[in-house]
Amino acid sequence: VEGYCTNAFAEALEVIPYTLAENAGLHPIKIVTKLRKQHANGKSTAGINIKKGEISDMVKEDVLQPLLVSASAIKLATETVQAILKIDDIVPVR
FRET pair for 50, CA 20 to 30 Å: which of 7, 21, 30, 62? Predict the structure, then answer.
């Protein structure tokens, strides 16, 4: 069950850059593939630059977001999913 949950969580997080690219009018599959490649090459600050329509270094572009904002959003989403799964008796309550 843990492996399935971890994979599902990872897939859910991948929707974020896909949706961002799609909403910006970019080709989401191409953009997300380029972003994955940058991250795989160790460029952890790479992100989607919607103004340029390409992958850029977000630190150099001065596009920064406080960690607390992202961490809070992910925590809230995770807790919501856990509550739904507990209600549906899919994941046993610890």
Answer: 7
